[in-house]
Amino acid sequence: MVLKNLALTVALLFLAFVPATATAQAGSPAAPTHPIAAPPSNAGATTPATSPASGPGAANPAPQTNCQGGPCDAPPPHITIATPAPAPAPWPLQERISWAANLILVLIAYMGVMLGLSALRKIERQTRFGETAAQAAVESAKAALLLAQAQERAERPWIVISPEPVPGTQDSFTVVATNRGRSPARVVSLVDEIATARDESHLPPAPAFKTEPRAPHTPSILLPGESAEIKSFSRGDVKAVCETAEELRRLEEWEVKIFLYGRLNYVDLRSADETETHETSWCCWYIHGRQKSGLVMAGTPEYNRHT
């Protein structure tokens, strides 16, 4: 950058001293011009008239001229003198000093502009570096937050619902809540409902309950891997759902189905905030046959939510 600025300065000085040299050369005296002789003018002269030979002895008779009654002399040459160019006025010392001062000021201003541009480029680079570092810090913070959330989710309790047959009892089933997480959980409320519908698509869009959530009869704390029964259903409970023989016939012919669904709320025992609860929704289809029955998971995602 310094060499480039120095070269530009030398070029400006050269261009500045060229006019002075040209002015000095213009001040030298001009070479005299040679006079230009005008061609002879034949204005006013008459063309000599020749007469025919008067005799055989006249070969080249002398021309007869008539210039106002006498012979015409050769006209004097016309001379033109060129006026020399006026000599230029000398360059005063004060103007030279002023010109040199202005040139120095221009060079100083140019150097200042170049230094300012260089500083602005450096500031721009530093700003870009700062923005890149800030963006990297934000990305690192996001990654750390996601990692912490993932670890927290991995360590928290997760209660899942599954239907299981009652050992030693035919056509009798229970809905079991199992803690699949890594920390203990405490069940705070339960609610369930029984409904009949043609299929899952004919259930309400969201689970509807006729009763309010209830607290478990005893404080239910589930350790990791531990289970608890929250609902039971058997073949004998079908009559309570189907009040008439026609409803029972439609159920046996699978024109309608029995659905059991509910919701369970629990808290993490490690959390200091007791109001931060998690929810597990569940839905099961009771398959009623003429001789045997079954209970399987069913329902739309709205009926099987985990938070």
Structure, described:
By secondary structure, the chain is an alpha+beta fold. Among the domains are: 94-154; 159-303, Immunoglobulin-like. The chain contains four helices and eight strands. The strands form two sheets. A five-stranded antiparallel sheet has the order 4-3-6-7-8, with no helix packed on it. A hairpin with a 6-residue loop joins strand 1 and strand 2. The two termini are 64 Å apart. Residues 21-65 have low confidence and may be disordered.
Characteristic terms for this protein:
single chain, 307 residues, alpha+beta, Immunoglobulin-like, five-stranded antiparallel sheet, three-stranded antiparallel sheet
Quick description:
This protein is an alpha+beta fold and 307 residues long. 33% of the residues lie in helices and 22% in strands. Among the domains are: 94-154; 159-303, Immunoglobulin-like (Sandwich), CATH 2.60.40.
CATH architecture of the domain at 159-303: Sandwich
Quaternary structure state of the chains depicted: single chain
Beta-strand content estimate? 15-25%
- Count every beta strand, where a strand is a DSSP E run of 2 or more residues: 8
Fraction of helical residues: 25-40%
